[in-house]
Structures are given as C-alpha cells and as structure tokens.
Write a structure and sequence with these properties.
The complex is a heterodimer. Chain A is mainly α. In chain A, 79% of the residues lie in helices and 0% in strands. In chain A, helix 3 crosses helix 10. Chain A starts with 6 loop residues before the first helix and ends with a helix. Chain B starts with a helix and ends with a helix. By secondary structure, chain B is an all-alpha fold. In chain B, a hairpin with a 6-residue loop joins strand 1 and strand 2. A two-stranded antiparallel ribbon of chain B has the order 1-2. At the A-B interface, helix 1, helix 3, helix 4, helix 5 and helix 6 of A face helix 2, helix 5, helix 6, helix 7 and helix 9 of B.
C-alpha cells in the first residue's frame, strides 16, 4: 500500500504531541527551580525535593495512597478479569445486558456521581469513612477498566488452544491456569497497572469516600493547590510522574521480551514441525 | 477459522465445556459470573437507589444530615407523602438551571474542539509508516497514565496573567498587555481539550487505521478533490470512531469538577462543582443527591448510546 505521509500529517502529529507533552515538561522543569515563584526561573535547585521529604503530611498521604493503590488494584484485577471472562465466554446468561451495562457505564460516569453514591451507600450500611471505604470505592471503579483491557485480549484469543487442552483431558479450571492465563497475562498485568494508576490519580471519588486519617496524595496536593502554586507541588507531581513513567517503561520492556520470545518459540516450533 | 476446517470440529460451546468438566466446572462458571455481578450490584447499582431515596428526603442538621422519608419497613405507607421539594427547588432556582445548561454547553463546545484537534493527529498516526505506529500510540497513551490533577495543575502556571504563555507572547510583541485566560471559560475549554484528547484520538485512530486508503486514491484518480473525498469517504468511514470519541469526552466533561474548579475560577458554575459545593460546603445531602439524579437523567441518553456502540464494536470483533 502506498502510505503517503504528507507534510500536513507530520505537522499535525508534531504539534499534537507538543501540546500533549509541553505542559508536563514545563511542570517538571520548574520543580528544579531555585526561585519560589513557579513561573520565573531562578537557577537549578533540588531544595523542593528535600523539603518534600521532610513534610510528614505528604509522606503519610503517599503511604496511604500506595497501600490503597496496591490493595484496590489487586482485588479489582481479579474481579475485572472474572467480569471479562463472563462477558466473552458466556454469551447468554440471565441479566447479561444489565451486567455489561454495569461494566461499561462506570467508564464514562462523572466522578462526582460515583463518589456521592458510594459515600451514601457507606453511610447507609454504617461503614465509617476511611481506608476501607476508599479502597472499596477504588476497586469498584477500576475493575471496569481492567475488564475492558482483559476483554480485548480475550477477544483475539485462539480458543482452539483451550479445546486442545481439554481434549487431552485437562479440566476447565486446569485449562484456565495452564493455557488461558499465560496468554492473557500481559493484559492482566497492564490491567493491574492501569487500576493502580487510576487509584493513584483519583481525587474526586477519594474525597467523597475518604475520612479522617486516610488522606490520599491527590487530596493532599489538591488542598495545597487551592492555596496557590508552589514548587513543592511541582516536585511532588514530578515524583508521581517519574514513578508512573518508570512502571510503564518497565512493563513495555517486559511485554516486548515476551513478544520476542513468543515469535522465537513459534519459529522453533515451525522448524521442528 | 482454519484449524476448525482441518479438524472438521465446531468450536466448543459453553454447554459442551460444562459437560466435560462436570459439576465442578459448572460451579466455577457460575462463580465467574456471580462474583463480579454481585460486586457491581452492591457497589454500583444499589448506591444509585440510595441517592434517589435520599434526594426525596428532607434536609436536617444532623449526622447524617438528612431525615429519611422512606425506610424499607414503611415504604408503602409513606409512598404517598414523598418529598419532591428538592426537585421543585432545583428547577425553580435559575442558579441550578443555569449550571446544568452551562455544563452541557461547555462540554459540547469542548468536545467539538477536541474532535477538531484530535482528528488530524489520529489521521496522521493512521497514515504513519507501520513501524512507527506502535510508538506513536504509546505516546498518546502515556499522558493518560499521568495524573489528571497534575495535568490540570500544570496549566495554571502557563495560563496565569504573569504565566509562561503571556511571558512568551509579550516577549514576541504579539500582545502588549497580558491576556486574561485563567478563571475564564477559555481556560476550561483548554483544560478539557487537553485532558481528554487521548480519549478522542484512540477511538478515531482505531477507525482510521482499519480504513482502506485505496478508496481515497481511487476517488482522487477519478477527479474528486481531496476535501470532498475526505467528506465523502474518510469521514463516514471514521464515523464510529468519531461517535465513540465524542461520547467518551462529552459524558465525563459534563460532570467535570477538577477542571472548572482549578482553571475556571470562582464564578464558573458547572454542575459537578455545584454538586461538590452543595455537599462539602453546605452539607446539604438531599439537594446534592437531587442534583446528581438530574445530572444522571441528562446523561442517560448519551450513556445508552455509548453502551450501544461498545456492544456493536464487540460484535464486530467477534
């Protein structure tokens, strides 16, 4: 096929990516600003990182955020994978329309509505607001994202592999762990990471469902931002961006390795056959 | 499927798999459906009914700050005296009506701008050399992994009167006095377009990438001008992506809180912010519940459309 990549195409991509990345780059640069003013460059300095690590409030919030993130991402990955399996493997069951509705609706539901409704549920069942309620809320809204990611992998999955395993006498459960799981594992891992980042980022739902003693990092950053823009917040944001970027890059390297390995295996198998 | 043709075997149905695994697998298959189903029922669906119930109750200065009108036990006896005051109040008060209308308008305008900016980017990506595409795709997804709050916050330093954008424009002598962008609707548009751009680009890209470009070439060969070829071929073929992208941007943007709060200033009335203030500052739970229910009713049609297209896309991939 003749792919003409015109000058217009290149220009729109370059401008588009500049628009997407410049604000973040500027934010990172100004976290190393010696001046207290965020928009005037006063020389290179890492003092804001130092003051960040001496700020007990930030450290506490970071610890809460990480615990909520790991716990909620893990549970939501299990639930989301089950939901994806239910949606792709069982085309007919009672209430399937409602089920798929409940999986897709949270993806676009405004956060204020999700947050408010979950809070009212927790009040209604008499659950005190805090660590547990934030975690439950995060499991609920992130599991749908996991379900979508895993589902798209299951769609392209070659079912004949499972059939072969079962023809050879494996039970469905055994087949799942020996055949299905290894194939969809990359999707499950990226689902976990997506759930973790969503939990790490969430401000609105956490603000509704959290209580005293369970302030998350975005809540802390938000309350600081309301008081004004400071280089310390830039430093906190840069650290968050750094952690996420490292995770994403690591995951893509792992994925690439697996992909290369898979291609090599296939080639070996073909030569052997 | 090729291997089905070779072995002459139809793919296993769920019933067949169940037969093979016996009772154990029947239980497992039930659990696979039941566990996420129950979770979503309890934590997603039931809360909406609670919101609805509380929206019909009266405000009280207590904890929780509302007096329930209906409990489970006296549901039927009280059903005649439901309290619709909150809804009457909302529809009477021009403040709320304006907030709803402005939210819809701001979301619509921003969605339009997002499409306008996102389309050339997605198109350029789809026409890029095949080896470059995964990298470009990764670059679009990457900002999505950075915190929403951080990305909105980054714009404050850029858009401020003494911010970087004004510094740049002043030093280039394009303007002689700083532009006031922060705390206006323009800042909200910029914030929404910027934050939601990847949501627009991804579905557009997946439609455009599947497109057969020889169609456009054929049209050009037959003397169709490029612009008219775009409207007659490219755009209709990209339409599923356009619809999905617009819905993915429009629906959350209507209820957006962080962007109007940080970039829009104190006068901007968007409904997400109104709900937040009603709840956190005024502690009026019944009114904020009523606000949420009306917002949900406004969004029911777009959400159903989104579901419909999701289901259709699924069918297409099957």
């Amino acid at each position: 096929m003749n792919t003409t990549w015109s000058r217009f195409n290149i220009a729109s991509i370059v401008l588009g990516f500049a628009f997407l990345y410049l604000p973040i780059v500027i934010l990172v640069i100004f976290s190393f600003n010696a001046s207290k003013l965020v928009t005037v460059w006063g020389g290179f300095s890492t003092q804001w990182y130092g003051s960040l690590f001496r700020n007990q409030g930030f450290l506490d919030a970071a610890w809460v955020t990480i615990r909520v993130g790991v716990l909620s991402a893990t549970v939501s990955t299990i639930l989301g994978t089950l939901a994806a399996l239910a949606l792709t493997r069982y085309t007919r069951f009672r209430g399937r329309v409602l089920f798929s509705g409940m999986v897709f609706a949270p993806l676009v539901m405004p956060e204020v509505i999700t947050g408010l409704s979950l809070l009212l549920l927790f009040v209604a069942i008499g659950l005190d607001r805090g660590f547990v309620t934030v975690t439950l809320a995060h499991i609920t809204f992130t599991m749908c994202f996991v379900a979508v990611v895993v589902q798209s992998r299951l769609m392209t999955f070659d079912r004949s592999l499972e059939e072969a395993a079962m023809d050879l006498g494996a039970t469905p459960v055994r087949t799942f762990f020996a055949v299905t799981l290894p194939v969809i594992l990359p999707a499950i891992i990226s689902g976990w990471m997506l759930a973790f980042t969503l939990s790490l980022d969430d401000l609105v739902i956490a603000s509704f469902t959290s209580g005293p003693g369970a302030t998350t990092l975005p809540m802390k950053i938000y309350s600081q931002v309301r008081l004004g823009v400071t280089p310390e917040i830039n430093a906190a944001c840069t650290l968050l961006i750094g952690i996420v970027a490292l995770g994403v890059i690591a995951a893509s390297i792992v994925n690439k390795r697996r992909e290369v390995q898979r291609v090599l295996d296939e080639q070996t198998a073909q030569r052997g056959g | 499927m090729a291997d089905t043709a070779i072995t002459g075997r139809a793919p296993a149905t769920t019933a067949e798999i169940r037969r093979q695994g016996g009772i154990l697998s029947a239980i497992t298959s039930r659990l696979v459906i039941l566990v996420p189903y129950l979770w979503l029922l309890i934590f997603f669906l039931i809360p909406f009914f609670i919101v609805f119930k509380i929206s019909l109750s009266q405000t009280a200065v207590a904890m929780p700050p509302y007096t329930p009108v209906i409990g489970v036990s006296n549901f039927f006896s009280k059903i005649g005296e439901l309290n619709f005051d909150n809804y009457v109040w909302l529809t009477d008060d021009p403040l709320y009506v304006n907030a709803y209308l402005r939210s819809l308008l701001i979301a619509a305008v921003s969605t339009f701008f997002t499409l306008l900016i996102g389309f050339p980017i997605a198109y350029g990506m789809a026409r890029a050399p095949a080896t470059l595409r995964p990298t470009l795709l990764m670059l679009v997804i990457l900002p999505f992994w950075t915190s929403f709050l951080i990305r909105v916050y980054a714009w404050i330093g850029i858009l401020k009167p003494e911010g970087l954008l004004n510094q740049l424009l002043l030093s280039l002598n394009i303007i002689d006095s700083p532009l006031i962008i922060l705390n206006t609707d323009w800042a909200i548009y910029i914030g929404i377009v910027y934050s939601y751009l990847p949501f627009m680009i991804l579905p557009l890209y997946s439609s455009l990438e599947k497109m057969d470009y020889t169609l456009v070439e054929a049209a050009n060969d037959l003397g169709c001008p490029p612009l008219s070829a775009f409207w007659k071929i490219t755009f209709p073929l990209a339409l599923p992506g356009v619809v999905a992208g617009c819905l993915l941007v429009f629906i959350p943007a209507v209820g957006e809180f962080v962007i109007p709060d940080l970039l829009g200033g104190s006068e901007t009335l968007m409904i997400g912010k109104t709900l937040w203030n009603e709840f956190n500052a005024n502690r009026d739970w019944p009114v904020s519940s009523a606000v949420a229910i009306i917002l949900l009713l406004l969004l029911v049609v777009p959400i159903m459309l989104f579901q419909h297209y999701q289901a259709k896309a699924q069918e297409a991939e099957r």
